[in-house]
Amino acid sequence: MVVGQNTNTARKLEPVPVSGWASLGGFDSTRSQNVSYLVGVDHVRCAAALLIVYYHGIQLFSSDVRHHRTFLPSDWQTFSDPVSTLLAEGHTAVALFITLSGFIFAFGAADREVSYRQFLTNRFLRTYPLLIFVVATGCAVHQRNVSLIPLLQTLLGGANLPGAQWLGNFSVMIWSVSLEWQLYLLFPALMALLNRSGAALFAGFIALVLAARGVAFLEGMDPVQGLYTQLFGRIDQFLLGMLAGWTYARHRRRAAFHHLLVPALVLVLAGAFAFNQSGGWPQPGWWKLATPTLEGVVWAGAILGHVAWTDRHGYRPGPISRAFAAVGATSYSIYLWHFVFIQMQRGQGWLPRLVEQPELNAALVVTLTTLPLTLAFAALSYQVVEKPFLTLRKRYVTRAERVEAHAVVAG
Predict the structure, then answer these.
(1) I need a labelling partner for 330 at 20 to 30 A (CA). Which of 31, 161, 212, 220 fits?
(2) Average pLDDT over residues 331-357
(3) What is the pTM (predicted TM-score) of this model?
């Protein structure tokens, strides 16, 4: 099955670079065959992974010092500087990951046809080997709580819905994998519509989502709990990422997108600061109906700006860039494993008091203990569980051929 589109601007498939930077670190055999390698994408993955580790680590470790118990929403801290507020509101890393997914997919599929079956096969090979391993480990620890139906729901993309299997610390991050899969199921059709109708249709759809959230709010929806883990609260971020990736693919050599990087990062810090000062994640309010969209806008700008900036400098980055890219390549393992290590540290009492200020102490503990341990384990997890399956992925995009306007799905 192929999802097609009507376009007069079909372009040739760009070869995937397998020499120079792209071959360093042994990652060349795992690169996607559907999109040319962009080192900036791995940089962004690294930033998102590190942000989520520091967010959870600082939140939980500082609560142990301040309150001698686990973190509660009532413990949410406000800070006076933008960097601290970004770490305090580091849950925005989820929005960054989702926006980045839309960017990558649309960049590779702009003005091309997408094989629905092969796309989903690739996503299965990308996400499920590690997911199954993590779930299996959680089942071994919490086997008395395992039930067949909740377990099947978790494995079949319903971990973000009521009734999913609880596996303690091993299941905390799995909800977002299910959310990603709900977006994967929609992507080929969304891409065909974007290629055919352009950005105006997506703008209209985002406006409709915002209006529907307003209706849901008036009908009693909690804008925090009702949006954070659900497709309804994240699809606009994915669409904005798609728009950014599609635009970059079409105008990569002509437009100066790298100028977006600095203003976008300023908006990220300013947005995190304003959000934190208003009460942070737990604070209810009708204005939070638009927060996912605003997150998507600023992250799409930051992704577009950084990818364009690194793209302009070719494939010759220095050791720091290579290190960030290597961490970015293991970001999925970092994401799924980090919470287990944070809670393991708490349970074992491996929380040294290095300074008196709780949040600063927590940041130092993460930097000196949690992060190295998580990175080392994630590197092993990537090499043993993820990488072998990544080499099995195949091309799911082909050069676009002109199709009839009414043919959205052609067999």
Answers:
(1) 161
(2) 96
(3) 0.89
Pick the closest to residue 127 from 135, 137, 138 (CA basis): 135
Q: Comparing C-alpha atoms, which of 378, 384, 365, 388 is closest to residue 335?
A: 378
Relative orientation angle of helices 175-197 and 231-251, to the nearest 10 degrees: 50
Q: How far apart are CA 178 and CA 158, in angstroms?
A: 6
Angle at 17 between CA 14 and CA 20, to 5 degrees: 155
% of the chain surpassing 90 pLDDT: 82
Burial of 201 (0-12, 13-18, 19+ CB in 10 A): middle
C-alpha pair distances (Å), 349 with each of 122, 353, 365: 41, 11, 12
Compute the Cα dihedral for 86, 91, 95, 100 and give only its sign.
positive
The residue ranking higher by pLDDT, 13 or 61, is: 61
CA distance 282 to 91: 12
How does pLDDT run across 370-386, given as a tens digit for each residue? 999 999 999 999 999 99
Rounded Cα distance between 383 and 43, Å, is: 19
- Calculate the alpha carbon distances from 14 to 33, 35, 109, 260, 283 in Å: 9, 7, 11, 25, 46
pLDDT at 253: 83
What's the structural domain count of the chain? 1
Asked whether 5 and 195 are in contact (CB, 8 A), the reply is yes
In which residue are the tokens 């969304």 written? 190
Contacts of 289 (CB under 8 A, 6+ apart): 210, 213, 214, 217, 223, 227
* pLDDT tens, position by position, 134-146: 999 999 999 999 9
Question: CB within 8 A of 54, min separation 6: which ones?
Answer: 87, 90, 363, 366
Phi, psi (deg, nearest 5) at residue 209: -60, -45
Phi/psi region, residue 214 (left: phi>0; alpha: psi -120 to 50; beta: rest), is alpha
Domain around 166: 2-410
CB 130 within 8 A of CB 336: yes
First to last CA, the chain: 5
Residue pointed to by tokens 């720091």:
320
- Distance (Å, whole) CA 329 – CA 5: 31
Compute the C-alpha angle 291/257/18, nearest 5°: 105
pLDDT of residue 317: 63
Could you tell me how far CA 389 lies from the centroid of its own chain?
20
- Could you tell me the sign of the dihedral formed by the alpha carbons of 220, 224, 225, 231, in that order? positive
